[in-house]
Amino acid sequence: MLTPSEMAEAGDTTLRLMMAAADAFAELGYHATTTRDIASRAGLSPAGVYVHFSSKEALLFEVSRLGHQTARDLLHRLAESAASPSEALRALIGGFARWHAEHYQLGRIVQFEFRNLSQEHRAEVRGLRREIDTVVAEVLAEGVRRGDFVVDDIRGTALALMSMAVDVARWYTPDTRRTPDAIEATYADLALRLVGAAR
């Protein structure tokens, strides 16, 4: 979830708390998780949580914020390294779908616990989501400009594509017949079909 530089910046205890919170939220759900649960998983006293975070919601926000920032930066790198809009779209949507399979528990927290954030924190996460959608929208716009894609509503199509990839975290479990490799390939193909591109 975190890049090496973010891990270094966060510090060992802060990082342990964030990972413990993510683990507890995934297992118990946000509302059923207590700061005592998080502290225990991080090897701290309950009071130790409040040295680093003001509340359970603040922990959820940091996990969500850094998760979204990591996704945004990953998608930027994938788009910039692609040789064509079609290659970029395959990498973005296939890769994003695969990530949500390989990290389905974390994906569920980042994507589906959004309603438990404060209004201010929701606004910040919404901003990051818009930045993520913009990466895809820019690839679509370039594909339309080159004549590779047929897309009437670029923003709406970007949202549909990203929603499709994010939804993998909702239904995926390790015992499903579909592997992350197969999911990546299927979703990459679906993305190209949706924009009318030759595979």
Notes on the protein architecture:
The structure is a single chain. With 199 residues, the chain is mainly alpha-helical. It has a single domain, classed as Tetracycline Repressor, domain 2, CATH 1.10.357.10. It contains eleven helices and no strands. The longest helix is centred in the middle third of the chain and has 28 residues.
Brief rundown of the structure:
The chain has 199 residues and is an all-alpha fold.
Helical percentage: over 70%
CATH homologous superfamily (4th level) name: Tetracycline Repressor, domain 2
CATH class: Mainly Alpha
What fraction of residues sit in β-strands?
Answer: under 5%
Structural class: mainly alpha
* Anisotropy-based shape: elongated
Distance between the termini: 31 Å
Defining key terms:
mainly alpha, single chain, Tetracycline Repressor, domain 2, 199 residues
Lay out the secondary structure.
Blueprint: H1 4-10, H2 12-28, H3 35-42, H4 46-52, H5 56-81, H6 85-102, H7 104-112, H8 119-146, H9 154-166, H10 168-171, H11 180-194
